[in-house]
Amino acid sequence: MINRWFLFVVVLAVGSAIGFWAAYLEGLIAGGVLAAIAWLAVDSLYAVRFMGWLRHELGNESTATVAELIPALPGIWGLATDRVRRLLVKRDRLVKDGQSRLEEFLAAMQASPSGVVLLDAQDRIEWCNQMATQHFGFDAQRDVLQHVSNLVRAPAFKAYMASNDFSHDVVISGSASTPGRPVNLSVHIHAYGADRKLLLSRDITAVELAEAMRRDFVANVSHEIRTPLTVLSGFIETLQTLPLKAPERERYLALMAQQSQRMQTLVSDLLTLSRLEGSPQPGGNDWISTQGMLANCEQDAHALSVLVAPHGHDIVFEKGQPSTVAGVHNELYSAMSNLVTNAVRYTPDAGAIHVSWKILNDGRGEFRVKDTGPGIAPEHLPRLTERFYRIDRSRSRETGGTGLGLAIVKHVAQRHGAELHIESVLGQGSVFSMTFPAVRVRAAQAR
Ligand code: ADP
What is the pTM of this model? Predict the structure, then answer.
């Protein structure tokens, strides 16, 4: 500031001196006045340039222009310009920091597996993430400031919003829900800030399905165990209360043994399934001989055939080229034997069963069981590997079936990377095949 006054005085002195030189005393005053006017004019020019720049910069968000358009002003105007420029740069940095934090925060909300919707005090949508657009069918841009109850029309949701009690969640159908493929959403509102609401939605279709399957499974297991238990306790009561003759006692005891055997088979199949589900994928280092497994399956088939068919079956085993499969012996044997025994159990007396193993041209290994049994209607095929799914319940029970055999086969096949194919024509018979990937199949080395 002192510099500025000093400069002003110097300009006045120079003006007055020139005036005095030109016209003595009159010139001295006129020179001083003219110098003061010139000073004021130049100073005003700087002020105008400064104000023009300031007006431009304050209305501009970009820091780049602050540096680019900065006017070169001398003295105090230059200092003021520099101070203002620094303030603007600082402001821009703060704005950018705030913006990037907001973007990170929104990106985190976008990454959330739940649907997130921010509602204002009037329950209008302020922002929603991608998952919420999928759940409710919102448009993230178009539906901003729309009232949420106008877009989510489920009566349960409207009642939930109207109740103002958000201590629990509400389950509604998602926008993509169809009668064939229902989608269920659990929606929960959390109040925050001044009358604002955070709406969270979660797709619980899979959870509900798993829960329903668990309930069905427990009910099925209980039912399967209760039936033989009821029969057993009936026999025990009879044996305890009635004086039975020896042959009758023998018959009852044989029936009791049959029922307890049935329970044992069921428990054993359940344990096999739970082991299959709980254990890690089998490695590729244990090579199991297919010949050995097929020989065991053949014995099982003949032994069972004698029991279930008075005239037996025409059973043919084509063991093919000696080979090995990488996997777990018990699992592979259990799957193959399940397919073979099913064919024996469901094929009527004197029917034909053909079992084969072969290495296909592309190196894959195919285990195939063909029977001339009753065949399976197409509508049952997709559900056949579900636990406890049976077409002919009484035939299954009569022949000692648990309804878990094909579920075990499916699990074993999956764990060994094999594909399970079922082809069947009602009244003509069925073909069950398991095709193992080439990496798990080797032709046995000739000795
Ligand atoms: P189960 O112990 O009842 O045989 P599975 O899981 O092995 O249970 O088979 C499921 C159902 O598939 C059986 O109840 C039966 O109705 C049908 N099924 C399986 N194998 C055959 C087959 N070879 N021929 C006809 N139906 C079959």
Answer: 0.69
